[in-house]
Amino acid sequence: MVLLPLLDTPTMMVMVAAGTLSMAIAMSVVRPERREGLGLWALALVAHTVTYVLFLLREQTADWISVVLANTVLALVFALLLGAVAEFHGRALPRLRMALPIVATAALMALFLKNYQGRLLSSSFMLALQIALVLWALWRPAAPAQLRGALLVSVALGAQGLILLGRGLWHGINGAPQGSFIGNGAGQSITFLSAFVVVLLASLGFILMTKDRADATNRHLALHDDLTGLANRRLLLQTLARDVARAIRARQPYALLMLDVDHFKAINDTYGHAAGDAVLQHMAGLLRQRLRAQDLAGRWGGEEFLLLLPGTADSGGQIAAEKLRQLVAQSPCAYQGKSIAFTISIGRCTESLEPGDQPEHLIATADKALYAAKRGGRNRVESAPLSRMHALIGALPAPARSFHQASPAPPPSRHDHF
Known about the structure:
60% of the residues lie in helices and 10% in strands.
């Protein structure tokens, strides 16, 4: 505490203003694809800079500017932070909670224009209240998924709120400090030094929140199908490899279902490709209805889907496949006022896995069973025994064609889907 009075208050105020403006410029450069609140946060930093410029004008300009206007702009800073947090969460701006503290601050500063202690207490408690509103919006009604940045924002703003509360209580009991507002002193030094640190930490925390969200979105896009939102081929293969290794160690059964929408080309030809997309999305929704926590459904390609069912024995795999087939047959897709009925064929591979079994074996076996289901008339479930010949390794079927492609002419190939 001995060094704090030695810090020059005007110099610290210039430091806060310069640091805040620099952070605002840095944040304005970041342009996320979606509105994340960064624009409002950067605007709050600009307002923060203006606040300290006005504070520096104390005793050089009218009190209405350096006191009333300065503190009103400071209240605007935290109102904009509240708006930034709401926008980050995708909520509507809480305009009333943003506006009321600004109006109240302006009124209180005007009321206590000649009363330093009144102004000091009013600003301390009003700013602490605004910080509480920001933190409440950050964590309620649900905690953000981006915990690292949220914690950094919370620690920084929370510490500032506690300092403001402590300052208000101290001067409420002991009276206002003597001397000029921009004079040197331990209290002023703590206030402005904490403001500088809070601006940096809270802003970095908010940037980290947006970065973590962008990273999570990119990871999701890399592992999920754009159209259906289900797992894509990469995630299916990664998960299947992990599941197979686990099932072999535990000597547990495993079921893999390969599904194909029957006569999909006819749906595209009759209703249009947009309707075909709607059917695939509808199919994805039906698959999600049948999933357990440990299951994974994904789009294998085109109109083909895979369903991974760990810990599922032969009878359970047959029941699951048959229920799914019936569900699809009884659940037409609603599209632009039309009801598009469709069915699926399912190839099933259900085995108790042994050392040496490979994910490719299960996929090739399920594909063979699917081919049998389509040759048998479609809208049915067929199974095939798992072939453990090493020759099957690398015998994965070619990627299923896009549903925009025409099917080959008879005789049917392994992927004749219409």
